[in-house]
Design a protein that fits this description.
Jelly Rolls, 9-stranded antiparallel beta sheet, 7-stranded antiparallel beta sheet, 3 domains, 508 residues
């Protein structure tokens, strides 16, 4: 009887116990569940982490059939409001797309942020045959399969994919323009943001440069812009025409950053080193670096295309960027991808723009020789007028007229020279005129690497030893009313910045 009584009591209490447990569990669940939207406010783009995008969006896809007559503009996307393009895809019924251009304009810009040949934008350079690209920013899938399917064009184009984000606050327009008839299809995956959403100030840009061929006496431009932003990546191609040496032996790339505000440099090593390779190239590809195309006909006869995306280590600039490659007489093409703040104001620096550069003088290899300039030579170079050549001793020296930009004066390309490039055992004199309305004191800001002797109106005012790396010095000077002749003796040595031979000059 007692046993039965206990059993009945347990049956009666069991639902209460279960109910009690369930209520507690529900209460715990409520505390664990976040209130409102479960997503964070923003997330970092996987290919461009500096771009923080809102999570409060509607996922959209816009498709388009492309059937264009010669000279006809075709709109692929034209939307108003705020959003971000996340993925572009194209396909065409033919491979010949050399006369096809792409334009991308956001936020009613007066000029498109992108305008260039279609194949170049998607990373196929110098008219090379289509090749496979598998990177963080670009993915191209050529159609190499030969079939007897009558519905597949025998020369069908690749699937063209672009993944870098293209944010916009009040509209985006993507269009194609071709000189001949084109048939194909497009797909745009994008995010539509709600009204009033906070969106990054950074906007996508792309630039293209081509030289057929390049010149060792002139740096090959990859990207140049002013304002605040960052470099997200670039792709570059060479077709070798100079067979006197390996195409990689040109000392790599140069980045001159923030010449108006905080001048500093990033120097490359050699071509393949700048893209993460060693001892030349092989056809490897990763998200961030890769070589999608290579034609190796011999040590001194190679063509190729190489990309570098800076997702984990973007190149920031706050006032300006000059990005170049040392060049050879080879065909070169490059496309850069960068982001720039909308309506960012470029600071103005009081920098001389016109320079006369004299040399080279064979006294730049040792500090002892460098630090003993001839008084007569300094006096001659400090004169108001200089002819096309300067005679000193038994030698005539050329006088080069050079322009600076954002305070940067480049000496690297005055001499056409094979490795070591540029020469490390010579000096140059650089001269410019600074005008002052009154007698006054000022601060001369001078950035350089290696050694420098500075003269003002023929008198030495200081000597700088920046032999370890590029540094900026602030030098008190006294201007006289009228024209003041600034003369700088500088050399080039192998140091941490690897053969960067530039000056940055401004007056505070």
């Amino acid at each position: 009887m007692d046993h039965l009584r206990k059993t009945l009591a347990a049956l009666v209490l069991a639902p209460l116990i279960v109910f009690g447990q369930s209520a507690v569990a529900q209460d715990v669940d409520k505390k664990l569940m976040p209130a409102g939207d479960p997503f964070p406010a923003t997330y970092a783009d996987p290919a461009v982490p500096l771009i923080q995008l809102p999570t409060n969006f509607r996922t959209r896809r816009t498709t388009a059939n492309i059937s264009a007559e010669a000279g006809q503009r075709v709109e692929i996307l034209n939307v108003k409001g705020a959003g971000c393009v996340r993925h572009l895809w194209f396909v065409f019924g033919e491979k010949n797309l050399d006369d096809l251009e792409i334009e991308i304009a956001v936020d009613e810009a007066s000029e498109p942020q992108v305008r260039m040949p279609f194949r170049s934008f998607f990373g196929v350079l110098l008219g090379f045959e289509d090749y496979h690209i598998n990177s963080a920013g670009l993915a191209n899938f050529p159609n190499f399969t030969i079939t007897n399917d009558v519905h597949i064009p025998p020369k069908a184009s690749p699937g063209w994919n672009f993944y870098l984000p293209i944010p916009f606050s009040n509209g985006c327009r993507i269009s194609l323009l071709s000189k001949s008839a084109k048939n194909g299809a497009a797909m745009v995956d994008w995010q539509q943001y709600r009204e009033g959403v906070e969106l990054t100030l950074l906007r996508f840009h792309s630039q293209r440069s081509i030289a057929l061929p390049g010149s060792p006496a002139k740096p090959f431009p990859i990207a140049e812009t002013e304002g605040a932003g960052f470099l997200a990546g670039y792709i570059m191609g060479w077709r070798q025409k100079d067979h006197g040496d390996m195409v990689f032996h040109n000392s790599g790339t140069r980045m001159l950053i923030d010449g108006q505000t905080d001048p500093h440099v990033i120097s490359g090593h050699n071509v393949e080193d700048d893209f993460g390779f060693s001892w030349g190239f092989n056809q490897y590809q990763t998200r961030w670096v890769g070589c999608p195309y290579r034609d190796n006909r011999g040590r001194n006869d190679q063509d190729g295309v190489y990309y570098r995306f800076f997702g984990p280590d973007p190149i920031l600039f706050r006032s300006s960027l000059i990005f170049t490659s040392n060049a050879r007489p080879d065909d070169c093409e490059a496309v850069s991808y960068f982001y720039q703040a909308r309506s960012s104001q470029t600071p103005q620096a009081h920098s001389p723009t016109k320079w006369k550069v004299i040399g080279p003088f064979a006294d730049g290899n040792s500090l002892e020789a460098f630090n003993k300039p001839a008084d007569e030579l300094v006096r001659q170079l400090s004169q108001t007028e200089l002819s096309a050549r300067v005679r000193f001793g038994e030698t005539d020296y050329a006088v080069h007229d050079l322009d600076s930009k954002y305070g940067w004066l480049r000496l690297e390309h005055i001499i056409q020279h094979r490795p070591p490039y540029p020469p490390t055992d010579h000096s140059y004199y650089a001269r410019t005129t600074l005008n002052s309305d009154t007698d006054r004191r000022a601060i001369l800001q001078l950035g350089l690497d290696n050694w420098a002797i500075i003269y003002l109106n023929g008198k030495q005012i200081t000597m700088l030893d920046h032999s370890e790396e590029f540094e900026t010095a602030k030098i008190p000077i006294a201007f006289q009313k009228g024209n003041n002749e600034l003369l700088i003796k500088t050399n080039n040595r192998l140091n941490r910045d690897r053969l960067v031979w530039v000056l940055n000059c401004s007056v505070e």
